Amino acid sequence: MSCLSEETYGVYVDGELPAEEQRRVEAHLIQCQRCRGLILALQDEARLISEALTLTGSAARRVAAPRRRARGLALGLAPTLALGALAVSVAGWLLEQRVPGFSWLDPGNLIGAYEMAFDTLFTLRDTLPVLFDLGVAVGATVAMAAVLTFFVSALLKRMTTGSVAGLLLLLVAGAGSLAPARPAAALDLRWDQERVEVESGVTLDDTLVSSAETFEVNGEVNGDVIVVAERVTIRGRVNGNVFAAAREVLVLGEIDGSLHMVGDRCELEGQVTGNVYSAAEDLEIAREGRVGRDVHLFGEGVHVDGRVGRDLLAGAERVELRGQVDRHVRTYSERVVVHDEARIGGDLAIEVADHGESTVSESATIGGEVTETEITHHHHERGSRWTDGGFYLRAFVLLVSSFLVGLLLHAVVPGLFWGTLETGGDYLRCLGTGFVTVVAVPVLLVLCAITVVGIPIAILGAFAYLTLLFVSNIVVAALVGGAITGAEPEGSHGFGMSLLLGLVLVLVATNLPFVGGVLRLLVALAGSGLVVASAQEAWRARGPRYA
């Protein structure tokens, strides 16, 4: 059989040959090596043309008129701002009027919140352990691969362009590779168990990380303890810090470090050398409890009957003090009671909510001054922050840091600033994507953390989440500034001027009275949506290269 024409092979590569003709071509390719090589060459040519068209389309979108790039933001900002301000005003009015059924809108109302949260978390952990483990493993792999790919790509790109930034990145990477490796800290990981116990008489010379139904330390741990469980009991000694999240946390032994506990009920009857930080529905430092340094307690009910070595800060619906505090006490509550046997070495500062009450016994011993103020929920005086010198200093630091980070991101990841909001629909879709990102990511991080093995990923993810919120302001500022100056996002000088102008405008707008908070939320949502959209476009653009 003679070879077919190159035109026929071109139509074959495009997938437009009739079925009978396609079978004839394939039958010939089986026995003709020269034609197979021609087909491969035509396929490579088609792929290169496709990539060129894709890049050209992306470039065309990027060089769209700068003022059109933010037109959707201008169209959609006013309606969403009005709706947001209306929602905030209605919610505030409902709270002030104490309308029945709307108390859940009050962020200070924590009744049942801890129990509900732990019910949800432990139910998910118990019913979907395999899914969580798979998610953690896949998330860790993808995250590490993405980070490494980003840095390698950035290094190669900067090296090929010969820029100063590339040289600096290369030097940093080289210095890191030459640095001596540090030995990893010893970890004792115990999870997915019904009961985890350090038995009496046993000494564990590792940091203990655990997830279980019941967790007990009856022996000694020379390291930190990180635990998520239904019930946590420490009767022995921990020579390190304790981080505990459980329905019930009971400390009867000694902690030579600081105690961090979150739960439905937390009780301290033992001794803590360092500080105590706790949030729970019911918190108690029993009469036998001893804390060497400061205590910060937040919950529905707080009872302090033991001794605090330095300061006590308590925020709750009810605060009762019968014990001894060597220095100062500050409370934020609806009801405060200082009993006869209470001993305070320094000042007592009481802040009670509207319609709250405080009772300080005349028999209580207080070494300093007693002050009582009422917590009011009215808005700050209009324009007051603009007369505060500290406000301008903080704003200047934020402006400079955002500007420098924006220039660095533009040098390393310029595609981050190519996003467009040309229509109102683009703006609304961007807000939706940002809302899902801003709301879903913290939930995923919490679910990741309760698997315990995913705690490092959750910590890194929290830093990445905060970074996303910071970068979202920079992205929106660059878009707004570019729309005003008409500068293209590719040029360094024009981008810098646009970014600086946009940052100033965003900073002023988000600090305006009444609407500043709503604008701050909209900027975070829109910026997060733009970052996610840029990441998706970059991923799609890279796809054909590895096909």
Keywords, please?
single chain, 547 residues, eleven-stranded parallel β-sheet, 21 strands, flat
The radius of gyration computed from the alpha-carbon positions, rounded to a whole number of angstroms, is 31 Å
Helix content: 40-55%
Let me know the average pLDDT: 76
Query: What structural category do the secondary elements indicate?
Result: alpha/beta
- Strands in their spatial order, largest beta sheet: 1-3-5-7-9-11-13-15-17-19-21
Catalogue the unreliable spans.
Answer: 55-64, 101-105, 107-114, 140-145, 147-152, 158-185, 377-383, 543-547
Major β-sheet, in short?
11 strands, parallel
Oligomer: single chain
How far apart the termini lie comes to 33 Å
Number of strands: 21
Please explain how this structure is put together:
The chain has 547 residues and is an alpha/beta fold. Among the domains are: 6-62; 67-109 and 385-546, no CATH class; 279-376, no CATH class. Helices cover 50% and strands 24% of the residues. The protein contains 13 helices and 21 strands. Strands 1-3-5-7-9-11-13-15-17-19-21 form an eleven-stranded parallel β-sheet, with helices on one face. It has a ten-stranded parallel β-sheet with strand order 2-4-6-8-10-12-14-16-18-20, with no helix packed on it. Helix 1 (6-13) packs across helix 3 and helix 7 (129-161) crosses helix 8. Mean pLDDT is 76; it is low at 55-64, 101-105, 107-114, 140-145, 147-152, 158-185, 377-383 and 543-547.
